[in-house]
Amino acid sequence: MIHDGGTREAPLHRETDMSVSQGDKGATAYKSEEMVFHPSSTTTVGAELELMLLDPQSGDLAPGAVRLLNTCAEESIENVSAELMQSMIELKTGVCRDVAAVRDQLVPPLRQIRNIAGSMGYQLAMSGTHPFHRPSNSAVSPSERYERLVERLAYLIHQRVVFGLHIHVGMPNGDMALGVMNQLVQYMPHLLALSASSPFWQDVDTGLASCRTALYRTLPHAGVPRYFPRWKHFRSYFRVMRECGAIQSMKDIYWDIRPRPEFGTIELRVCDMPATLETTIALVALVRSLAIASQRLLEERPQMQRGDIRRHWIAVENKWLATRYGLEAIYIRTPAGKRRPLRQDINELLDRLMPIARETGDDVFLSTLLPLDKFESGADRQRRLYRKSGSARPLVDDMIASLSAELDAGNGNSTPDANATTSTGVVSTQWKGNGTPLESKQGVSTKPAATPRASIPPTAGVSNGCAPIDLPGYHLIRPPSAVDRQSPLAARG
After folding, report:
1. For the whole prediction, is pTM greater than 0.85?
2. Higher-confidence position of 321 and 464
3. Rg of the chain, C-alpha, whole Å
């Protein structure tokens, strides 16, 4: 018998078809074994970046992914793969023990991919959408599974020319994964507002901070995750949806947060692809700190495992407010209807999470979001540049220049726009990350990460005698002293 929140050693991941034909069951019939949650013993972390491939002459998206990926394979660059459109590529990390390892597994290969793309006449850039591309001109990548997606989604396939950041965090079992998801639902607007970088669509200012989010909502099985109190309830949902032919695998569920039992993680998908690598890494640190705080809360107060379904009800509206207004949203803070400025709440959240980030050594990355009143989102930056120039082309040039400046930076900060209100510096490293891809889940990378300070990453959920901090929706942990942070933490049994 399999326990509801049961765990089992993870097998090597096998690529599965992402889409389902109408009424297609057959070989895709549900197998309970596939819904066993394979545990992560610590709060490991990983990231997936969806990147633009551009023609530097026109500034438009360019269908060069096949050529680029073939060359990357010849150069033995790992963890880079095709995406839905030929003007997109995805770069992912392996399973990382901390955020420094995420950075070190992204920056060196990304620099090399940028150089290869440049030799072919292409450029790389980061944003949630391209500001003036006509998506009907996009070419779908040559793949059987993508052809099936075209058949399933029809015209809506052209609304998928959008770019996101996906963040994985390791969980010990299925029940804890759902419990943490239920806690994180209330923080989706915070993550979305910080990452928002898609105000333009087909050369039109949509008035939204993240039109990517609005476009993605048109897909079936997308949006705010369904509410499940325990893993057994999610397994029942998955079984019904799969047996009736609505989905074939977890990858057909496009929720903003979804469990990935085959990897032993939860995957946050709500973020736009941020405008800078610095913001990207900061969001990874924020998500990991939130996940650790949530797990500690649930271990100290198991009665909160079921979450509060009212948070899911208001999450739809809160997500819309962040989609529309970004950091300037006045969001719904409690189910009772109390509201407050989202920027203010994010600022207080960062302050309260900083002790956890110091424990893990992630604080140097999380702190780049502060002071928040000086932080400029990608959406705000694009609008500022457009109003200055009256054209969308400078926005693309700025995206290209910003990414190149970060990749070429040494140990300092560099930015192509002296008027920008936030830096785009990324600490460089000589180590080329070569961790195991998320898709194979063979274990945590053992490469020594160039952490910015000496610290010992704690085992997820172990409070180590820390004193609690009160925070709406959370019961966070503050280390009682610096001495305790240097002591080994108890390992999970």
Report:
1. no
2. 321
3. 21
